[in-house]
Design a protein that fits this description.
Blueprint lengths: L1 E4 L7 H11 L3 E7 L13 H12 L9 E7 L7 H14 L7 E6 L6 E7 L13 H12 L4 H12 L7 H9 L4 E5 L2 E6 L2 E7 H9 L5 H15 L4 H12 L1 E6 L9 E6 L4 E4 L6 H4 L5 H13 L8 H9 L3 E3 L4 E4 L5 E4 L2 H16 L7 H10 L15 H14 L5 H7 L2 E6 L2 E6 L4 E4 H4 L12 E3 L4 H6 L7 H8 L24
Helix pairs in contact: 3-4, 12-13
Length: about 525
């Protein structure tokens, strides 16, 4: 429960505010005290009557310019009834020195937390100004006494509870305390805990740092929570999902938002059951958490994501990874579904799919080290890409050359030549009466004659993969331009602009969506 003294005012706007809420059915006048004969007249009083009476009392001391005392006491949710809050407000006003002044207590029901507004005069009936020295600090202490609260013990207990959790940052530790109603200041290496406007306790920041520096990810719990999130999130709006996680699993999801922004930039999970604080991204990407449940909204979201893809610059694997962040699963045939859902949302156009996969092959092939034009041609054939999409790499060092040379020279001395090659994850490639050694794991392709120039290997007992002789020539016959992106688009008979207009195309009823 909290109390807040609102800004003083020359007139009694607090009454006008609550009476307007009354008219809307969002508040109710619970108590009107010390209005003299006016309060015993038996007639129904209006806000004007109350305001005029309060002005009459304050006129006895014209030196007091700000006449209105206006405060709010708020409970968490429905923890206190309107009558209980009204009784607490009466005790509060008496302890603050307003008990003999005219005052009004209104119960408000326009938020998720039950609360009461109190309006009184800062001048008593004898014309004396009510003492407002250290008013806000006294206000907190008065409420604590009424509720029998010990804020210092609260702070001590809150620290003890927070330190039972496993956390990885100071921000996560502070979040645990914020959930218990504390705010903070940092001074001289200490984190000060503030509640009711007063520093109630502190803790050494070095101690906190030592705690999270020894943090280790709870791998098993993360795996378990991933399964829980994926099982329950599908088909649920965020609010309902968060409520189920809290009620059923003791997980509280706290969304982080910049002031004035409706969309969160991240979220944190407090796992009360296992005493863990986790980054939301460890369990489920934020965008997937915010995924709408309406199917048409999902399709619109997918259209927007696909519309941003530059098909002539993106590989299939990168596109697949990017869409997976949003909860979409892309099959090798170009089908798109939501993870853990068998319903088809769309299919990538065949030519665009070919282009995406082609760029992926280029990216992988470009990781290999090659030193000659012959090696470049062979590597292009292995990955079914154009020769001009590859470059010559750095010259292999002597250690690398020696490693492969020793393996090849030992092939003659062993009947199990193929077994030796397999044990080293090596392949022999044949192309145009020449032979090459391929090491996929270490991304290396080398002409065998560069490895053992003075020795001729007997390839009769070695498994050799012979490459087709015509494929490279055919792929090179396509007309090229100076623009690499345009070359690729032309290769797959695609317009560059076509890759960005998906969101603009109209959907045809009764036909499968083509993306």
């Amino acid at each position: 429960m909290i109390v807040k003294i609102l800004s003083s005012a020359k007139n009694f706007e607090g009454i006008d505010y609550s009476e307007r809420k009354n008219e809307l059915g969002k508040s109710q006048l619970f108590k009107a005290e010390n209005f003299g004969a006016l309060g015993h007249s038996g007639d129904e009083l209006s806000k004007v009557d109350y305001i005029n009476y309060m002005k009459f009392i304050c006129d006895s001391n014209p030196r007091v310019k700000n006449r209105q005392f206006h405060a709010v006491i708020s409970a968490k949710g429905n923890s206190h009834s309107p009558r209980e809050l009204s009784n607490i407000a009466e005790q509060y006003l008496k302890s603050m020195g307003y008990g003999e002044n005219p005052y009004l207590i209104y119960f408000h029901a326009d938020t998720n937390n039950n609360h009461v507004h109190m309006v009184s005069t800062r001048v008593d009936k004898k014309g004396n100004k009510i003492d407002d020295t250290y008013e806000k600090i006294r206000s907190q202490k008065v409420l604590q006494e009424i509720l029998n609260q010990d804020p210092h013990m609260e702070a001590k207990t809150a620290l003890e509870v927070a330190l039972t959790f496993n956390f990885s940052t100071k921000a996560q530790f502070k979040l645990l305390l914020e959930e218990q109603g504390f705010k903070f200041t940092e001074k001289e290496g200490h984190l000060n805990l503030i509640k009711y406007g007063i520093v109630q306790s502190n803790i050494d920041e070095g101690f906190i740092k030592n705690r999270f520096q020894n943090y280790k990810d709870p791998i098993d719990r993360i795996r378990q929570l991933k399964a829980i999130f994926h099982k329950y999130k599908t088909g649920l709006e965020l609010d309902k999902f968060m409520e189920i996680m809290n009620r059923k699993f003791g997980l509280k999801l706290i969304l982080h938002q910049h002031t004035g922004h409706a969309t969160p930039y991240g979220y944190t999970i407090i796992d009360y059951k296992k005493k863990q604080v986790l980054k939301g991204s460890q369990i489920m990407p934020l965008i997937q958490l915010l995924m709408p449940i309406n199917e048409e909204e999902k399709k619109q979201m997918l259209d927007g994501l696909l519309g941003k893809i530059e098909y002539s610059k993106t590989s299939f694997q990168k596109m697949k990874m990017e869409l997976s962040k949003y909860g979409f699963d892309v099959g090798n045939e170009g089908t798109i579904k939501l993870e853990n859902d068998h319903k088809l949302l769309g299919t990538i156009d065949r030519k665009k799919l070919q282009l995406l996969k082609y760029i992926g092959r280029v990216e992988i092939a470009s990781q290999f080290n090659i030193e000659s034009e012959a090696e470049k041609v062979v590597l292009a054939k292995i990955f079914h890409i154009r020769v001009e999409d590859l470059g010559i790499g750095q010259k292999s060092n002597q250690e690398t050359i020696s490693y492969y040379s020793n393996i090849l020279q030992n092939l003659d001395q062993k009947h199990g030549a193929n077994e030796l090659l397999q044990s080293k994850n090596l392949e022999v490639i044949g192309f145009q009466n020449d032979y090459f050694l391929l090491d996929r794991a270490n991304k290396q392709l080398i002409e065998i004659r560069r490895l053992i120039p003075d020795h001729t290997l007997d390839f009769k007992h070695i498994d050799v993969s012979h490459l087709d002789k015509t494929e490279i020539q055919e792929i090179n016959h396509h007309q090229h331009t100076s623009n690499p992106a345009a070359q690729l688009a032309q290769l797959f008979d695609l317009s560059i602009n076509e890759s960005n207009d998906h969101g603009k195309r109209k959907k045809k009823k009764g036909k499968q969506r083509q993306i």
